[in-house]
Amino acid sequence: MNETRVRDLAFVLRCSGAATLSFILAEAVRLPHPVWAAMSGIIVGQERLGDTRQATIGRFVGTLLGVIIAVVVGTTSQWLGAGQAYEIAIAVGLAAIIVRRYPSLKVCMWTCPIVFLTTTADTPLWEVGLYRGAEVLLGSAVGTLVHAVAEQIIWVRYGRS
User: For residue range 99-120, what is the model confidence (pLDDT) as tens digits?
Assistant: First the structure.
């Protein structure tokens, strides 16, 4: 098999592997929405390992920022009696201000609505934010690890490229 076909196969396997392993681990630690782990495992994967690492750093920082913004805005809006539409508008607006300056953190813009829209009446907002952050961070870490292992296997067989 030539290197191009090996890289094609490695891409397919690492995407599938990252999604599946992230999902299994998120379920094993009983995270409420393992879908976010599976998606993050795929999303961070880029063509080159260095790019995957950069995407993971942006995802980590952006997710944490989005969770913080959502919890602060959500907590404040509860005092004001504002609804979810208000929360989403304000939180995404604040996140967008940051993303204009730091585009690699764009995940913070969609983290805010994810936190608000997965909130339940019996779970405090800060706890929902903690869960969503853990799901995304777990998936991102697994996606990067799977990519690193795949690259190592290819490197052993074909050398660096």
Answer: 999 999 999 999 999 999 999 9
